[in-house]
Design the sequence.
């Protein structure tokens, strides 16, 4: 058993203490890309850090709820994560498309919302808009992401496309979510904060830990703060990176990327009793 990192805030320390004291009412949730899986140039090649699945499986039998909350389609996160094939993750919940989709490991059931007309309209226009930038489009079904990581000048392409992609999103009634060299268009009203809050209420959680790495995770960190105000202890964990430094100020504990998240989860599991 190694050392457990200490949160830098009083509220974070209280959240960790409650999680350790009442794991039977603890919800642990994490983003996928950049939190469990290292960021890679091709999103289809993403896979969890080698230590992530063993740590998640160890936690799954020790806390009330283990969840993934991601902007990816739920079935894509399940496939890339290998979650359906791992016997230790039978109780996992995956909330995809910022909570609009839900996959339950216990049943294998996937629920998805109807297609959004604005996404279909933007899909038709987007290739022409980004063709000369070197960016590529990730079609998430009910969302569209423009990645500039593989462009000759990733930061320059991101800056140049932010305005035009934002205008396209607004024209079709979509929300724009900037991230780590990615611009994502998705239906409004979908965010990780609402998804996390709804899951915490559904499961009657006494504590919530959320780990994330990007701007889209700020809503979930905000939800943890609001849940604290209603009596639910919370711990906000930043999967740190040099690309997004703003998150550290909105969290209680920063660890070293997906490796650090996996190590934190493994340390937590080592301190919790297995479910009887």
Sequence:
């Amino acid at each position: 058993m190694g050392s457990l990192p200490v949160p830098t805030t009083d509220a974070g320390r209280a959240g960790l203490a409650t999680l350790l004291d009442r794991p039977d009412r603890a919800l642990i949730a994490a983003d996928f890309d950049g939190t469990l899986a290292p960021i890679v140039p091709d999103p289809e090649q993403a896979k969890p850090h080698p230590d992530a699945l063993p740590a998640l499986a160890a936690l799954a039998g020790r806390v009330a709820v283990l969840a993934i909350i991601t902007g990816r389609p739920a079935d894509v996160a399940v496939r890339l994560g290998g979650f359906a094939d791992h016997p230790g993750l039978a109780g996992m919940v995956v909330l995809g498309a910022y909570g609009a989709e839900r996959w339950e490991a216990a049943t294998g059931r996937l629920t998805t919302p109807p297609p959004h007309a604005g996404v279909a309209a933007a899909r038709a226009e987007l290739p022409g808009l980004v063709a000369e930038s070197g960016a590529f489009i990730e079609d998430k079904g009910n969302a569209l992401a423009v990645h500039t990581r593989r462009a000759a000048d990733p930061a320059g392409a991101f800056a140049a496309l932010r305005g035009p992609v934002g205008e396209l999103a607004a024209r079709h009634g979509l929300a724009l979510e900037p991230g780590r060299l990615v611009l994502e268009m998705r239906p409004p009203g979908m965010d990780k904060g609402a998804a996390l809050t709804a899951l915490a209420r559904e499961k009657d959680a006494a504590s919530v830990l959320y780990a994330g790495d990007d701007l889209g995770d700020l809503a979930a960190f905000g939800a943890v703060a609001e849940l604290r105000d209603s009596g639910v202890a919370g711990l906000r964990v930043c999967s740190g990176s040099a690309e997004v430094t703003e998150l550290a100020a909105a969290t209680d504990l920063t660890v070293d990327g997906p490796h650090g998240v996996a190590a934190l989860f493994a340390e937590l599991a080592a301190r919790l009793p297995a479910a009887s």
